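Support request, please re-run this one:
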Amino acid sequence: LMSRLQGEMACSNDYLSRPETMVRLLAAGLKRLWSVDIADCPIRNLVEDKLASARIRVDRGLVDLDDWEPDTAAEVGCDSPRQLLEYLIAHRPAEEELVFSHGDYCLPNVFFHEDRVSGFIDLGRSGAADKWQDIALCVRSLRHNTGDDRCRDLLFRELGVMPDEDKIRYYILLDELF
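Re-run finished. Output below.
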């Protein structure tokens, strides 16, 4: 499918060298996804659903510890997937802002062509979910791909929202279990 998609990943050297353009396009991609009507969306990825899936993954030993970022979970005093799951259950967000979510909105999964969003890949976790799921993983990916948090502020300006630090942290932690 990638060979049919025009353009290059958001984390290409071209776009990393032009962070303002990259972030503007990432925000445009989020807004495009969020504009999809979810009234009849058959896939619900609400926190309750994600926690149930995470419990199954933890119980069956399916959390990939080679991909586990111990510093991320250690920030909240967790050193195992089970501890992290219990933390997430106890600290789940009170409310969710439901949109059509990519589910794994990170730079390698967003493609640009001629300074426009040309498409998305890795949509296996897409469906109706809290918009902060996408924002959190985008923030993490920006930090990972750029090495600093300057693009983070640009992203929030482009989205026209104030950062919700609790939700950002929550969804980054939740992603550790997938």
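The two ends are 23 Å apart (CA to CA). Helices lie at 13-16, 19-34, 47-59, 70-74, 81-90, 131-146, 150-159, 165-175.
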